[in-house]
Amino acid sequence: MHTTGSDTATLLNDLLDTADVLVVELDCLGRIIWFNGAVSRLSGWALQEKRGRDWVTDFVPLPEREMTRDACMGAAERQEPANHRADLIMRDGTRRTVDWFYKPTHDQDGQWVGMICLGHDVTEAEKVRDALFASEERAQGVLATAVNAIITISERGIIETVNEATERIFGYTRQEMIGRNISMLMPEPYRGQHNGYLDRYNKTGERRIIGIGREAIGQRKDGSVFPLDLSVGEVKLPNGRIFTGIIRDLTERKKLEEKILSISEEEQARIGQDLHDDLCQQLAAIGCLAKVVHQRLTSNNVPEALQLAEITRLITHANVRAREMSRGLMPVVLDSSGLMAALADLASSTERIFRVSCPFRCDPPVDVTDNKVAIQLYRIAQEAVANAIKHSHAERIEISLALTDGMFDLTIRDNGRGIPDHAGSKGTGMGLLTMSHRARMIGGTLSLTPDRFGGTVVQCLAPALPVPPPASP
Fold this sequence. Notes:
Elements: H1 7-18, E1 22-27, E2 32-35, H2 37-43, H3 47-50, H4 55-59, H5 62-78, E3 82-89, E4 95-106, E5 112-121, H6 123-145, E6 149-153, E7 159-162, H7 164-170, H8 174-177, H9 190-204, E8 214-219, E9 225-237, E10 240-249, H10 251-299, H11 305-329, H12 338-354, E11 360-361, H13 371-390, E12 397-404, E13 407-414, H14 430-441, E14 445-450, E15 456-463
Parallel strand pairs: 11-12
Antiparallel strand pairs: 1-2, 1-5, 3-4, 4-5, 6-7, 6-10, 8-9, 9-10, 12-13, 13-15, 14-15
Helix pairs in contact: 10-11, 12-13, 13-14
């Protein structure tokens, strides 16, 4: 190649010298005859310094020499091309990783006279590959050890990847989940609604969960349902997008929350019972004594009889108020219409005690068969009404209960002062925190928004599908 003086050979040499591919010509003993400029630029060695030297000895690290020589000479013995990867030693002692292609060369008589070695420097590509591999290993390690379930799905809702926590939480194996619709992990009616929601989001961009997160209900392989916290993120790719869901099993947290609320309900019931059995009885006894004394003073024409009559009236009024307070602290009636009756009673007692307008609307009737749901909805209504009176100084409060799209909709609307500007949509009071906590206990959500006509709207949406009780330890 380097010995001819023709114009074509010269042009070929020039092209090979300026190319990025490494080109080395060896004789049949593996000694260097020629290499191009790319080898010189990469290694730092000039051709004149290495011509006639053994290629493997001078350029290949000692541990790899035997394997490299076998690959090169083996190609010659078999008289066929071969591929091999080996490190190349630079003049400064550093190393580069090169993919080599060996091809035997022959003279005009067909006799083997040497080898042509074509190389491609893959050092940077190897670094990138190693970095990607290490990154993937770290990512896989994080996924494998994560406590929460991590699932990726396609635009069509098909499960593409799951981690070990997903298998543990839902009871399915990885093979049973990948390739199937994510709705398999949901109970009805959510299973039937999911594809419609996903299609609507893909077409309109309307979000309900994606980028927001919420509490939901999952279904295990054995058919049992459980509360979960779901966060969904979206990743846009050149050929589409995928969704990543992070799921946390809330069973243990719900157990604790239910226990705390149960203690709270029991304490409220105890206080209500004490008010009814102790304070109300004492007030009744005092009222009776006052009436007797009033009758005696009246019969004797004592002027103080009128004052005692007023005292008797106040005691009777205080006794009525104490009894109403005790009823408000007692649990909701247990039958299916108990919530409607309790809310109607709350509305009428609010009108009677606080002298405000408080209608209750529930048309058509809504039967809440789960008493735990009924109690939490009733307590939310109690708190919202109390806030409307104490903080908003409302003159009209509307309570409504409806069933819409499989969700209980409890709404309390007032015409009070509204939400302070600094409070935001979530607020910071303990009352609101308690209401939000109660809503989450039944798998629902609570919103606090200003009414467009003035005042505040408190709305709790809770699934009509009963939230499963926490599993026993």
